[in-house]
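Changelog entry: the Energy-coupling factor transporter ATP-binding protein EcfA1 record was regenerated in this release. Current contents:
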Amino acid sequence: MGRIVLEVKDFSFKYRQTKRKALKKISFQVEEGSFLCIIGSNGSGKSTLCNALVGLIPHYFAGKMSGQVIVDGVSTEESTIAELSPKIGLVFQNPFNQLSYTAGTVAEELAYGLGNRGIPREQMAEKVDYVSKLMRIDHILSKNPLELSGGQVQRVAFGSAFIMEPEILVLDECTTQLDPSGSEEIFDIVKDLNKKGITVIMVDHDMERVARCADKILVLDQGEAAAIDEPKKIFGNPEIVKRGIGVPDYVKLSQALKEKHYTEREIEITEGPTIEMVKEVLKI
Ligand SMILES: Nc1ncnc2c1ncn2[C@@H]1O[C@H](COP(=O)(O)OP(=O)(O)OP(=O)(O)O)[C@@H](O)[C@H]1O
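Regenerated C-alpha cells:
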C-alpha cells in the first residue's frame, strides 16, 4: 500500500442554513498517486465533500462540522487555505466560481494564485505559457476572462488550479461546460497528470469514464459513504447499484447476458479493463 496523502475521519457537516446534515460520518483514505472517483445522485454531498477536502469547509462555508480531514499529515481545520493550496487544489463544478474577478486578462487570471504565492515574474510567465498550451488557451491569453465562452472559462478554471501544482487535484464535475471532445481532451490531461504521480479525486456522472479511470470509487448516498472499493466491485454489487447511481453499459450488458445464462465461452470478449468487470458481474 502506498503512502496515505489524504485521510477523512468520521467527518460530518451541516450547512448553517439547512436542517439536514450534508455529510454524515464519512471515513476513507486516499493513497498517493491514485485516482479516486466520487459518485452519487444529486444532493448526495459530492460538492460538499470536495469543499471539505480543500479546506473551504470549515474556512469559507459556515456550519457545524465534526471529525477531521487530514491532508499530507495536516488537519485542514488547523491550516489556512493558503497553506493547503500547494498540497491540494480544487476545480469547481461552476467554473465561474474559480475566477478571481480582478484579472483583466486570461494570462493574469492564470497567474493570480502564483502572484499570491510570491513566485518571481519570469517563472510565472513560464508557468502561464506551459499551462495555457496544455489547456489549449494560449490563443486567448490577452482576452478578458469575463468575455469567454463557458467551455473556455472551464479550461481557464482548470488551468488556474493546475498551475499551482498541487499534489492532489480535486475535480468537481469539471467539464460540464465542454462539448464531448473538449471533455475527453481534459480527461486525457487528467489521466496523464495522474500517470505522472498527481493524486486525483474526481466527481463525475459519466460511469463509463469513472470505470475507465478510477482505482477506487467512493459512493455517496444522502451524505453517507455507501461504499468505497474498486470499480469492478462497486459496479458488480447490485446492492450498491440500487443506490441511485448510474451503471456503465457493459455492466447492463453483462447483467442481460447473465439473465440469459450466457457463459464466458459463448461470449467473445476482447481485451480491456472492462472485461474484468463483465466477469465480475457474471461471476465467471
Ligand atoms: N452552500 C450551501 N449552503 C447550504 N446548503 C448547501 C450548500 N451547498 C450544498 N448544500 C446542501 O447540501 C446537500 C448536499 O449538496 P451537494 O451540492 O454537496 O451535493 P452534490 O452531490 O454535489 O449534488 P449535485 O450532483 O447536484 O452537484 C444538499 O442538501 C444541498 O442543498
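Residues 1-87+167-231 form a domain with the Rossmann fold fold (CATH 3.40.50.300).
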